[in-house]
Amino acid sequence: MTGPRYTPLVASLPATVPFVGPEAQERANGRPFKARLGANENVFGPSPRAIAAMSEASAGQWMYGDPESHDLRTALAAQHGIRPQNIVVGEGIDGLLGYLARMLVEPGDTVVTSDGAYPTFNYHVAGFGGVLHKVPYTGDHEDPAALFAKAAEVGAKIVYLANPDNPMGTWHKGADIVAAMDTLPDDTLLILDEAYVEFAPEGTAAEVDIEDPRLIRMRTFSKAYGMAGARVGYALGAEPLITAFNKIRNHFGMNRAAQIGALAALQDQDYLKQTVANVAAARTRITAIAAKNGLSALPSATNFVAVDCGQDGTFARRVLTELVSRGLFVRMPFVAPQDRCIRISAGTPNDLNLLETVLPQALSAARAG
Amino acid sequence: MTGPRYTPLVASLPATVPFVGPEAQERANGRPFKARLGANENVFGPSPRAIAAMSEASAGQWMYGDPESHDLRTALAAQHGIRPQNIVVGEGIDGLLGYLARMLVEPGDTVVTSDGAYPTFNYHVAGFGGVLHKVPYTGDHEDPAALFAKAAEVGAKIVYLANPDNPMGTWHKGADIVAAMDTLPDDTLLILDEAYVEFAPEGTAAEVDIEDPRLIRMRTFSKAYGMAGARVGYALGAEPLITAFNKIRNHFGMNRAAQIGALAALQDQDYLKQTVANVAAARTRITAIAAKNGLSALPSATNFVAVDCGQDGTFARRVLTELVSRGLFVRMPFVAPQDRCIRISAGTPNDLNLLETVLPQALSAARAG
After folding, report:
1. CA A224 – CA A265 distance, rounded (Å)
2. If contacts are CB pairs under 8 Å, which of residues 141-170 in chain B contact chain A?
3. What biological processes does GO assign it (chains A, B) (predicted)?
């Protein structure tokens, strides 16, 4: 038996996974984590109105969700002052990134990103045979000018930029990104991933002409709205690009209760404000805990903080291992010199009590190791 | 501005949609349907245990779902007497069909299906540039021998067969399909879509060696388990093929509450039995209503009934239009001669009271039209 004939591209792909989930780590460790601060999930959870809406929608899950996500797109359009035709809703930003890669990338096509930026984007690009060119961070910031220059140099079909950045938490003013776009080639698509923008200072979101064909912005209900498990992301862009998703997307892929929950979450902006304040307080406390242990935390416009462990990646990995072994799920950047840091998501006060307890232990163990 | 550079394939694709959802029809009509019997949704809904589990999981939607769907795959493996390594869970069968097309189909590759079978499969094949060869139904049944002969003739990478069939509701014994596989080329993958198999007589599910590399079987929680909106499908197959999904799938694409709900639904086999009985009763009543109106209904092993309107596709389309205009959402086969039928999903007693009322009106109007 010869078995299925995979495409040469798929046959050549490794069976990699962008991230190992915390549940897999718990199964391997034989015990649950005490605090879950590794995946930039929002521990403050969905709006009570969203929770209620999703609960009430459970009995109605016998129905497929609206494949056009009409109600959610209409509400998002009103919030952003654009038309529903400029919005596509998808199965998280991850799902939308996969569709975009499929729409644009053929084997050998060039794509630009930052070295150490979002691995799932890289996974999708590689999954369609794209060739990634990586630009280093500059002072722990993604570097728009360098990214766009590289895009022009290699004739990139796509350039990816997260603002605020993950995993460092740093950010640029939206206006500075828009200004840097002067050097972006007309036929390069900028994916501006604004997953964390609701946590960021005013002025961080890019103000652009929605019909600018060079740009698509990614947003999500996974972070500030606290609904990562619901899998609701959306993209804002020019109508021809948004319409093109309809050629290939999984039209009936959206969970019905998730759509209903996202709409309810959007309508509870007071809760969003409370969450943003909770997250800011948690960032302040993580920074203070780090300082108490002689470590410096990077300023962050997200719901996580990169804590500089003061040495190299090997040391930071030891610190991470010691934290994980003490029941604290955290992650860290993959690439030097950013991998001198560990990345800690904003936790509840209880979560951060655990951090306060175990961080000095982990540092001692790592220094002894 | 030139805009994004789509791949030649994507640039050439039409912006088709496999199905227009009932919500879009309701928006166009300016009023909601009175009964929703067009999409083979299961009006009897999820198990109360699944509803409770999904409701309780709403507050926990701040967490990503387990990307390995470990608990659900483990339970499914136990039910099927196989290993979790032989199961991949995905965003409905639609999502899994898209992944499979991506894994196997390059522009120009040949794929075989029945003429009038599942449009979403065709959509995914076309979306990767595959060339579809269509085999006619034989006596309103998909024809395994003809499908496999065509696959051998054209060197198909994939052959698609739904058992029971959609949209006709007809079925084959699993053993007959397995026997027909003797003529299936070793390097053709048979996608056996068993979405409706829980409604079918014993012996309809194919009994096969799970490591047979020629076969992958599709199952879902959308139909008998009444959870179409949750988007939980799964595939059973040889470990190398199942593992290959990990090269390309959206690892964090599964809704967390949906996974939890599916597990609870699986654990309530008594409710499943009750649903299957409810559906059988609804089929009997649809058949009786059809007969009262001088129409014959096809025998069905699914949760829908194809009702032969006794004339051609033009007439059946008129009947359908008249039913829809009277608040009854139904659909119909796309291809002659199967398009002489309308397809009516098993409804609640109230739904079928509406059918009983409006079918004679619709037939009169269609005959007058």
Report:
1. 10
2. 157
3. L-histidine biosynthetic process
Cα–Cα distance, A226 to A252 (Å, whole number) = 23
User: Can you name the CATH fold of B10-39+270-368?
Assistant: Aspartate Aminotransferase, domain 1 (3.90.1150)
- The CA angle B221-B225-B226, to the nearest 5 degrees, is 95
- Range(s) of chain A covered by CATH 3.90.1150.10: 19-45+270-368
Contact (Cβ atoms closer than 8 angstroms) between residue B114 and residue B142? yes
| pLDDT value at residue B341 | 98
For residue A151, pLDDT over 90 is answered with: yes
Q: Read off the pLDDT of each residue in A269-277 and give the average, rounded to a whole number.
A: 98
- Cα separation, A286 vs A269, in Å, equals 25
Q: What is the pLDDT of residue B166?
A: 97
Output the pLDDT for position B1: 58
- Say if the Cβ atoms of A1 and B214 lie within 8 Å: yes
Would you identify the CATH topology of the domain B48-267? Aspartate Aminotransferase; domain 2 (3.40.640)
The pLDDT, as a whole number, for residue B15 is 82
Residue B217, helix vs strand vs coil: strand
Cβ atoms within 10 Å, residue B75: 18
Name the nearest CA neighbour of A210 among A99, A85, A97. Answer: A85
Closest of B361, B354, B352, B353 to residue B293, by C-alpha = B361
The yes-or-no verdict on residue A1 having pLDDT over 80 is no
We find that the CATH architecture of domain A19-45+270-368 is Alpha-Beta Complex (3.90)
Distance of residue A46 Cα from the nearest chain B Cα, in angstroms: 6
User: ipTM of the predicted structure?
Assistant: 0.97
**Which of A62, A187, A214 is most worth mutating to test chain B (most B CB atoms within 10 A of its CB)?**
A62
Residues of chain B with pLDDT under 70: 1
